Amino acid sequence: MEKKEYVTYGQKGQCGCGCGCGSDLPAITGCRFSLSPMTDRFAEIILDAVKATKTDKVWQETGKLSTIYRGRQIHVEDAVKACFIHAWRKDVHMTMEATFSRGCPGDIAGDSFLAEDEVLLNEPAIRNIHFPVACKIALYPMGIPNYMEYIAEVVNHAIDLGIYEKSAHYCTVLSCDVQELFDYIHYVNTYCAEHLSHYIFEVTISVNSPTKEA
Amino acid sequence: MEKKEYVTYGQKGQCGCGCGCGSDLPAITGCRFSLSPMTDRFAEIILDAVKATKTDKVWQETGKLSTIYRGRQIHVEDAVKACFIHAWRKDVHMTMEATFSRGCPGDIAGDSFLAEDEVLLNEPAIRNIHFPVACKIALYPMGIPNYMEYIAEVVNHAIDLGIYEKSAHYCTVLSCDVQELFDYIHYVNTYCAEHLSHYIFEVTISVNSPTKEA
User: Fold this and answer.
1) A104: Cβ–Cβ under 8 A, 6 or more apart, which residues?
2) Residue A135: its chain B contacts at CB < 8 A?
């Protein structure tokens, strides 16, 4: 019988506890995302958006399921925001599913590009574009017993900002302008990088939904 | 100034540790999912699929961002599988983002329906429908330091089943028949219910992608 190549997550850490402590990775933030424009023109819209996004400061890879950007947090956020805004059309219902993450014990130092400077490549072209978005978010702080406290912290910050719509099963619903949403995503990634060794932040954004009800 | 109503996740447990231990919830499995058929006919396809799915054994709610089913694990899985298969069209690129979860400390006993029996309402009509799917999965076992070991366990089971395509940043990619995929989802939910107090299992399924590359 063919010998199978299994994965060994949780068995490589220096402590042997499966937690990944002892890992010595650079500060790589990643975002894996998929755009779903619900129109016959979906391929054209996605390809145009990808092409219009400046990605010189991130590592990127596109597959059949999603695109991934990896690098410094601010540059990853800048590229994801640009790709989403470039894909937006006034009359097309579209969703973007995005998974932001940092600190996975199974992560590798490669497949990344950590630009030295803080000059955002896309922000000047998109900063003044406004449209309403509906969004569901879920934060997963990994490896710690008191994870619910960190989730409460970021949800309460959304309440403070006035972008919180409601709590629902397995997610929190936000409703705001696209600029406010990406400012909030930046806040969450920054807060998590400071307070958590490994987190996943799931964000699904919807625009132009024909469903009016909340 | 208006007094804000904040959330208090992690402050209600009997132990005060924010972990939710001491909670006494029934065995509610939930799945929040969104279908994204990338065609001008998206609304018709989604509504037809929702209507064709028998949901008498789950609690359900549909909003502008997603639909949620809650109840006994097998009945939730049965309804989600049916809704996805009923939305499939031979020539339409579609994704489904689905979040399975159980054991959230912030969960409530309500908004659920725990059917007594094990008779699946949808399976007979869909068991013989076959088409290939591409899928990315991510498992988040919450509140424990050795979470990577549980992730490795379910990934290695996919390897054993021959449905594993590759590991990628922040997810695992599967490639198989739709029936095999939902059998695997059932295995993961069953394994997690037995071994974890709180988990989230994120699944994004794609059919008929025009992108050939993996």
Assistant:
1) A20, A198, B169, B170
2) 65
The answer as to CATH 1.10.10.10 being correct for domain B29-207 is no
Residue A85 falls in which region: left (phi positive, over 0), alpha (psi -120 to 50) or beta: alpha
**What CATH number matches the domain at A29-108+125-207, 1.25.40.10, 3.40.50.2000, 3.90.220.20, 3.30.70.930?**
3.30.70.930
CB contact under 8 A, A65 and B34: no
Contact A152 B8 (CB under 8 A): yes
Q: Report CA-CA distances (Å) from B121 to B54, B60, B66, B185.
A: 6, 15, 22, 18
- Structural element, H or E, at residue B29: strand B29-37
Residues of B in contact with A107 (CB under 8 A): 169
The ipTM assigned to this model is 0.90
A102 touches chain B (CB under 8 A): no
Angle between helices A178-195 and A73-87 (to 10 degrees): 160
Distances in whole angstroms, Cα of residue A29 to Cα of each of A3, A111, A192, A213: 34, 11, 11, 35
Residue window 121-180, chain A: list those with CB within 8 Å of chain B: 134-136, 138, 140, 142-149, 151-152, 155-156, 159-160, 167-171, 173
The verdict on A107 touching B (C-beta cutoff 8 Å) is: yes
pLDDT in tens, chain B (214 residues): 567 888 888 765 444 344 444 455 668 999 999 999 999 999 999 999 999 999 999 999 998 899 999 999 999 999 999 999 999 999 999 999 999 999 988 777 777 777 778 999 999 999 999 999 999 999 999 999 999 999 999 999 999 999 999 999 999 999 999 999 999 999 999 999 999 999 999 999 999 998 865 4
B113 to chain A, any CB pair closer than 8 A? The answer is: no
Q: Is B101 on the interface with A (CB under 8 A)?
A: yes
Selected residue of B1, B169, B195 to mutate for chain A interface (largest A Cβ count, 10 A): B169
- Determine the angle formed by the axes of helices B42-52 and B73-87, rounding to 10 degrees: 140
> A79: which 2 tokens?
């590229």
